[in-house]
Design brief:
This protein has 526 residues and is mainly α. Helix content is 74%, strand content 0%.
Amino acid sequence: MISSNISTIDTAIVIAYLLFVLMLGLWISRKTKTGEDLLLGGRSFGWGLIGLSLFASNISSSSIIALSGAAYKYGIVDSVFEFMSGLPLIIAALIFVPIYLKNKITTIPEFLEKRFDYRSQRFFSIITIITTILIETAGALYAGALVIQVFYPGIDLWVSIFGLSLFAGFYTASGGLKAVVITDAIQAVILILGCSTISYLLFEQYDFSWDKFTSAMPEGHMSLVRPIDDPAIPWPGLMIGVPMLGFWYWSTNQYIVQRVLGAKSINHARWGMIFAGFLKIIPLFIMVIPGAMALGLYPGIEETDSVFPMLMSEILPAGALGFVLAGLVSAIMSSVDSALNSSSSLVIVDFIKPLRPKMSETDVLKYSRVCIIIFMVLAACWAPQIGMFKEIGLWGYLQQMFAIFVPPIVVIFLFGVFYKRGNGNGAIAALVVGTLIGIGIFYCNNFTEYNLHFSMSVGIAFILSAMIFIAVSLSTAPPKLANVKGLVHESKNINLGTENLPWYYNYKHQMIALAALIFTILIWLW
């Protein structure tokens, strides 16, 4: 069904965009003089850049392709991972942003070292690097290569993957986080405009009639709350697994939180996160619903990961196709550059600096760039292997892999800030045993007759990890109160930075508006 109708003008648009990004990265690299410039952009980001960068880094090519494919196959239920992201972003802005910024941490594992000890810091750092490179980065490269193969079928999969990784790795290593955030902001705008074009043209084929569109869908396809045996997201998973995965992603994931750590102030960090929450509502309308629309217009697509590339090829005219393809390439770049930069930050701050505390800024830059190159190669080597998971699709691969590692991480961060009695022994026990439980559940789900949906297995692993954390903490010596001061939640942190601000600048009012919008959508599509 998919035909390659890429024109010369489309190709020229994509090449022009890539050259623009490359030149921008090189220009920013001239101003990248220190390790903090490379890793945190000199802590100079305003709320607009933060919000756009959070959105662009999160909405990778893998997300676009996976969400559209899942909507085609199962319905719009997977959109809850998108428009409900505002809720964990609100929690992050309320609780974690003031703790992170007051302690001036550079990496999220650094918080664990301060709150617990180096064991949980190192273990969590390793887990974060693995998930960032083998899931986020490799997934984005694989999805991007699938798109390139649709429009340029003569290019082998592995050539596309290595080409994309080399390009993103080059400008990330040159310009660091500032290059990542600035290019992300540009890419977010291109991505929204490009996907909106497809959504508009698809809706036009339904005569802009919502009733005509929904009547063409199978029963339950447009519903968010599903039966307990639903293969997409059963209702217990919606209540348990989705919030937990969202909390991990937006509050504890170095890949995402790093640009928040580079904020110029606590207000800009919070405004940026709330702004990202509003932006995250958009994918429901320009990525998820178009995947469902495709079912009524192009039934019978067996490989659902090809739905979005097919829509691009079938409905977009010359010129517009190049623009949208540039947007998709933007998504690839946004994910890969963020992942490479955050992973190099973890290696430098959590592993190399403790061994070489007197490292010069030149050495930090050098080691960071070497790490970026190494991770770029590792992700490119693993990306083709994702093809082994065709049965569950790209979305299934991403979520099942995350479900292995997320539950114990959520436990140690939530209990870390709300349970002062929790100690380092409890944290490392929960991390190690909880991760092993996740691996065991993943194995059973994929290689035995046992089959529990990932969104519910997350809840089981969370409960077991929490029990381990509490039991081990209570059976060993409590932490000294002086050591946890400033690292646990204090009610005064909620109002930090809001003194003497007009009501419309107060993030709490923005937060209420965001929550109200999210629950309105949830009720509308219940």
